[in-house]
Fold this sequence. Notes:
By secondary structure, the protein is α+β, with helices and mostly antiparallel strands. It has helices at residues 13-31, 79-93, 109-114; strands at 37-44, 50-59, 62-69, 98-104, 118-124, 131-138.
Amino acid sequence: MSYSINITDAPDPAIRTAIVEPLVAYNTGQTGIADFKPLAVVLSDASDQVIGGLSGRTAYGWLFVELLFVPESLRGQGVGSDLMHRAETEAVARGCHAAWLDTFQFQSRGFYERLGYTCFGELTDYPPGFSRYFMKKVLTPPV
């Protein structure tokens, strides 16, 4: 088989799909599990414009929180906690037993710790002078 290798800083979404689909198929073949499902908890303003929220996915019994953003004007009012709680509740409904995420030193480690997350890994000097923290939490179904 002949092939070429190219580098781009502006990949078409179809490129990601062409990489992800066979990888997911391989993983499913190895694990017998095909439960990958996207998850979004959307924060909108009064005119229904998206102003923040949570984006992630559930798979293999875990919730992965990829992105969480709350506008500065809404911080400290429980909005972020509400978004996380809703995502965790949905994850439990989907059969998840735990959640994980990552955050930078200059972002929200303390926020996540207050929600019950613990740090299980640290990548130092990413970006230079800061750390990136990897955090997890056991999810418990409501009683």
